[in-house]
Amino acid sequence: MQVVQTGRGAVRGVTGLRPESRRNAMSTKLNACVIGLGSIGWGAAVSLLREGFPTVAVDIREEALAKFVAEGGRRAATPAEGAAEADLVMVFVVNAAQTETVLFGENGAVAAAKPGTTFVICVTMPPSAMSDICARLEAAGMKAIDAPTSGGSGKAASGETTLMASGPDAVLDGVMPALEAMSGRIYRLGDTCGAGSRVKMINQLLAGVHIAAMAEAMTLGAKMGVDLGTLYEVITGSAGNSWMFENRGAHVVNGDYTPHSAVDIFVKDLGIVVSEAGDGCPTPLSDTALALFKEASAAGMGREDDAAVAKLLAKKAGVKLPGVED
Questions:
Q1: Are residues 253 and 159 part of one domain?
Q2: Which Gene Ontology molecular function entries are recorded, alphabetically (predicted)?
Q3: pLDDT of 234-254, one tens digit each?
Q4: Looking at 29, 67, 114, 200, which residue is catalytic?
Q5: Does residue 129 sit in the same domain as residue 53?
Q6: pLDDT tens string 260-311
Q7: Residues 159 and 278 in one domain
Q8: Residue 213 and residue 224: Cα distance in Å, rounded?
Q9: Measuring CA to CA, how many Å separate 129 from each of 134, 172, 184?
Q10: What is the reported pTM?
């Protein structure tokens, strides 16, 4: 494992070992509980299993739990049941409100967890909300880490997400083998919860704006009669490319809007950006992208892949995208 430190209080990048190296290096197997088996939570849970961590999962979907049991994991009916014997509880629900519920609500994890259990909150939420939740966890006698992730379902499944972690060094060190099992790169962003969420918020600003730009570019290309497969190939090899263009542009070319990350996720995430920025920092690109995602959601695309914003623009432009019937 390589650690890069650029000075006191600076970002330290921790590059995780490849899975086979991690397996040989790891000496402690924590009992883990994963709450939320969405695309990222599922990847984290199966990555922990793959690295030998006893893992129990909690989800409201029976099919997700059955699939996890088939992978060799265990299931729990409630967050309280899942957390009761855990050393580490990782939360992968959608937003701050759901996090509050699974932690502190009826049958919540905190009341049932052993004192000193480490809670790693991997939910994208306002940094202020993350700080509050971590403070409540600590007041309840638990340890807390703010650790949103990035990388999408593919990297989550292979244990190669980027993790943006903040919290006390001793707490992070105690669960680092488990975090390495699910992450290709871990950034330690300070000893106070909320710092990780601030960086994730900026990441989501860029991700949302880049998806909107991809949609606009593909729509304009289609309107001008450019073959979208050719356009995709040229742009991905040129200076105008971005990770989001390369990833989501392929969805448009293939006409595949299977929701790996839904439109409504960016309604939430860009909403966080605009709200947290407030009047003190202009966010004109975020404002525009957020309006586009909101319009797509209102048009019934909220649960479709976030690349579906291209369908909205194409309809307005009077052009037909691959795989789109109307």
A1: no
A2: NAD binding; NADP binding; oxidoreductase activity, acting on the CH-OH group of donors, NAD or NADP as acceptor
A3: 999 999 999 999 999 999 999
A4: 200
A5: yes
A6: 899 999 999 999 999 999 889 999 999 999 999 999 999 999 999 999 999 9
A7: no
A8: 16
A9: 9, 20, 27
A10: 0.87
